[in-house]
Description:
alpha+beta, 2 helices
Amino acid sequence: MDEKVSIHELPSGERVHVHPPTRRFPNGKKVLVRDHANSPLRKRMMAKLDENIARKQELRDEHARRLQAKRDRLAAHPAVPPEKRHC
């Protein structure tokens, strides 16, 4: 059997995948293509996008601050005495 799936547009503007006949669906099968642009989950995620970007930057800044503080502490109080360092 030919397994090609075609896409058709309904008069309402919605799109459907048209599958060829199979043993389970002798007349073929039509599957409505979900419009991801109008997804409720996508809408919620897009509404929080700016907030998430700002929070991610805050986390990066906090991480950089903590890393610099640790480097400063190590520089001020080295764990290995200078005579034992090879570098």
